[in-house]
C-alpha cells in the first residue's frame, strides 16, 4: 500500500460530556452519522456561510473528538472554538507537529491497517486511510498522494482556496459528506441550506488538464480575457481548479479556448461527483 507523510498538520482534541453537542451545534459535519474509525470532512463557517476553518473530524474514545487541520491555522481554530464554547463542559486542546500518515490503495499491511487507522471518507472509490502518531518513517510518496488527490478532485484550503473566500459547495463539501443537510442549525446553516435547495452553487472544483505543464497555483483561468476561475494544486500537466461551471459551459458550447495563464486547459467534473454543467449555456452578459 503506498503511503505518504503529510507535513505541517495539527490535531485539536475536544472532549468531555458536552463535546458532541457543542460541536454538532457549530460545525457543518453531522456527527450523528460519524462512525468510529472514520475521518469525515467539515468546516466551521462564518455567519455568511463562508469557510473559516476546514478539517477532518474523527471520534476519539467514548466522548471525544479529534479535528485534523493545517498547523498554521490551528491556533486561530482553537481560539474560535473557545469563543463558542461558553458554558459547555468540553475541553479543547491542540497537538502541534503530529505525525500524520496517509495510505491508499487496495493492498494492506499490518502497520497501515490496524485499529488506529481512520478511513478518509472523502474518497468514495478507493480505500484511503489516515494514521495519527506511530513510529516516524521516511516520507513515502508525497507526489503520489498529491496526484491522487488531484485525480479525485479533493480540494484543501491553502493550496486550492483561501479560508474566508469559499462556500462549502465551492469545494464539494456538500458531496463529500462534509455538510449535514438533515441536522439542526449550525453557524452559517441558513446560507448553505438555501444554496442547496435552490441549486444556486455555480463555483465548483474541477480537474484541469493540459498538453503542457500547468502554471503555478493561483493563476487565473480565463476565457477571451474574462475570468472563470482560479488554478489550485498543480502537478505537472494536471491540477485542481475552482471555476464557474456556468461560464465554463458557455465557453465549451461556443468553442472558446479556456486558458490557465498562457496554457490552454480542459476542465472536467470529478468522476464521482453528482453535480453537472448547466444544461443551457448562459450569455456572456448573464455570466
Describe this protein's structure.
The structure is a single chain. The chain is of the alpha+beta class. It has 5 helices and 16 strands. It has helices at residues 19-24, 74-85, 142-151, 189-198, 245-254; strands spanning 3-6, 9-15, 38-45, 51-59, 64-70, 91-95, 100-104, 118-120, 128-132, 203-209, 220-223, 226-235, 238-244, 258-260, 263-264, 266-268. The chain starts with a strand and ends in a 19-residue tail after the last strand. The model is unreliable at 108-113 and 282-287 (pLDDT under 50).
Distinctive features:
Elongation Factor Tu (Ef-tu), domain 3; 2 domains; 9-stranded mixed sheet; 7-stranded antiparallel sheet; 5 helices; globular
Brief summary of the model shown:
With 287 residues, the chain is an alpha+beta fold. 17% of the residues lie in helices and 31% in strands. It has five helices and 16 strands.
User: What is the CATH first-level class name of the largest domain?
Assistant: Alpha Beta
The major sheet is characterized as:
9 strands, mixed
Q: pLDDT under 50 segments (min length 5)?
A: 108-113, 282-287
Q: Please state the second-level CATH architecture of the largest domain.
A: 2-Layer Sandwich
Mean pLDDT: 93
Spatial separation of the terminal alpha carbons = 45 Å
Question: What's the gyration radius in Å?
Answer: 19 Å
| Fourth-tier CATH superfamily name of the largest domain | Probable tRNA modification gtpase trme, domain 1
Structural class: alpha+beta
Amino acid at each position: 500500500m503506498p503511503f505518504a507523510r503529510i507535513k505541517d498538520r495539527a490535531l485539536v482534541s475536544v472532549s468531555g460530556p458536552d463535546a458532541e453537542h457543542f460541536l454538532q451545534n457549530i460545525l457543518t459535519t453531522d456527527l450523528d452519522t460519524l462512525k468510529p474509525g472514520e475521518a469525515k470532512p467539515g468546516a466551521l463557517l462564518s455567519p455568511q456561510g463562508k469557510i473559516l476553518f476546514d478539517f477532518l473530524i474523527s471520534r476519539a474514545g467514548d466522548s471525544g473528538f479529534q479535528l485534523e487541520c493545517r498547523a498554521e491555522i490551528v491556533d486561530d481554530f482553537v481560539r474560535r472554538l473557545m469563543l463558542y464554547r461558553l458554558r459547555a463542559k468540553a475541553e479543547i486542546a491542540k497537538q502541534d507537529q503530529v505525525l500524520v500518515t496517509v495510505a491508499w490503495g487496495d493492498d494492506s499491511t499490518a502497520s497501515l491497517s490496524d485499529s488506529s487507522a481512520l478511513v478518509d471518507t472523502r474518497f468514495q472509490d478507493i480505500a484511503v486511510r489516515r494514521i495519527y502518531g506511530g513510529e516516524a518513517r521516511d516520507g513515502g510518496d508525497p507526489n503520489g498522494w498529491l496526484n491522487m488527490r488531484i485525480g479525485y478532485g479533493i480540494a484543501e484550503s491553502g493550496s486550492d482556496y483561501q479560508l474566508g473566500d469559499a462556500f462549502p459547495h465551492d469545494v464539494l463539501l456538500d458531496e463529500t459528506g462534509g455538510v449535514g443537510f438533515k441536522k439542526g442549525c449550525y453557524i452559517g446553516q441558513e446560507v448553505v441550506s438555501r444554496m442547496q435547495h435552490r441549486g444556486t452553487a455555480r463555483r465548483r472544483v474541477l480537474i484541469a488538464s493540459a498538453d503542457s505543464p500547468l502554471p503555478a497555483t493561483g493563476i487565473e483561468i480565463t476565457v477571451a480575457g474574462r475570468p472563470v476561475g482560479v488554478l489550485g494544486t498543480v502537478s505537472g500537466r494536471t491540477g485542481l481548479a475552482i471555476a464557474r461551471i456556468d461560464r465554463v459551459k458557455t465557453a465549451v458550447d461556443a468553442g472558446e479556448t479556456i486558458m490557465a495563464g498562457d496554457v490552454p486547459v480542459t476542465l472536467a467534473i470529478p468522476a464521482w461527483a453528482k453535480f453537472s454543467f448547466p444544461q443551457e449555456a448562459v450569455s456572456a452578459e448573464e455570466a
